[in-house]
Design a protein that fits this description.
The chain is 38% helix and 0% strand. The chain has 58 residues and is mainly α. The chain is elongated and about 40 Å long.
Length: 58
């Protein structure tokens, strides 16, 4: 979907970090959640979205 220039421009304009996320940014959160340090985290929604959802979906 990001190959569609119009869609990409809308995503970038709605994202406070002004860029789409990268796979390593999501995988870092997944790796953290697999660590013992995250063993007390339960039932959470963790948005790895560069702030996209801060104002709700456009």
């Amino acid at each position: 979907m990001l190959s569609d220039k119009h869609f990409l421009d809308r995503v970038i304009s709605a994202t406070p970090l002004e860029r789409p996320g990268e796979a390593n940014e999501v995988s870092s959160m997944v790796a953290f959640l697999c660590m013992h340090a995250a063993s007390y985290i339960t039932g959470q929604t963790i948005a790895v979205d560069g702030g996209f959802t801060v104002n709700g979906f456009p």
